[in-house]
Design a protein that fits this description.
Blueprint (H helix, E strand, L loop, with lengths): L1 E12 L5 H10 L12 E11 L2 E10 L2 H4 L7 H4 L4 E7 L3 H17 L5 E7 L11 H11 L2 E4 L8 H11 L7 E3 L1 H8 L5 H6 L10
Parallel strand pairs: 1-3, 1-4, 4-5, 5-6
Antiparallel strand pairs: 1-7, 2-3
Length: 210
């Protein structure tokens, strides 16, 4: 019997940086060039197997970008309340998105549990020819704030699984685990809210790589 640990993970960042695409790649290994924007928040689950005996199950809350859907910082705590970990995403081709990421990180440091594991993630490395945020700048900021730092491409899948695996390894696996068989873990891994339905229900036809 495997030991399973369950953690709440929240994704934050400006609209269109690729939060939903990262989740879709991690959970279903898929990518959609014309993803509809998330409205409010979507919820999915996925597991990471660290070894033959340890499974980490993530409850993933994918939030909308605050500017587009007016998800203000005063509303945000409902999404990251009791979160064990957070992935704050920026777009390497948009320097302003790193500024927004800094805002979210300050908010997490001020409001979230002090033990929260925070990863800063620069997405869209497949568009590196349009890069505006250097690796040196982002890594220096992450080091100063004690954050994990990654670069990913939700489109190609580069680095995506590594983000969640590294977070799983950093989380404290000291809480009493829920015991589950491997087949049950696989079945639970892809349950959750369909990200497309979330936006379709609100009549959003806007195409964005978010």
């Amino acid at each position: 019997m495997s030991k399973q640990f369950q953690f709440k993970l929240v994704l934050l960042g400006e609209s269109a940086v690729g939060k939903s695409s990262l989740v879709l790649r991690f959970v279903k290994n898929q990518f959609d060039d014309y993803r509809e924007s998330t409205i409010g928040a979507a919820f999915l689950t996925q597991t990471v197997t660290l070894d033959d005996q340890t499974i980490v199950k993530f409850e993933i809350w994918d939030t909308a970008g605050q500017e587009r859907y007016k998800v203000s910082l005063t509303q945000a705590p409902m999404y990251y309340r009791n979160a064990n970990c957070a992935v704050v995403v920026y777009d390497i081709t948009q320097a302003s998105s790193l500024d927004k990421a800094r805002t979210w990180i300050r908010e997490l440091q001020r409001q979230a549990d002090p033990s929260i594991v925070i990863a800063l993630c620069g997405n869209k490395t497949d568009l590196a020819v349009r890069r505006q945020v250097t690796q040196e700048e982002a890594k220096k900021y992450a080091d100063e704030e004690g954050l994990m730092w990654f670069e990913t491409s939700a489109k190609t899948g580069e680095g995506v699984s590594e983000v969640f695996t590294a977070i799983a390894k950093k989380l404290p696996l000291s809480a009493p685990p829920s015991r589950t068989g491997a087949s049950r873990g696989s079945a639970a891994a892809r349950q959750g809210v369909d990200l497309n339905k979330q936006a379709a229900a609100h009549g959003s036809n806007e195409a964005c790589n978010c």
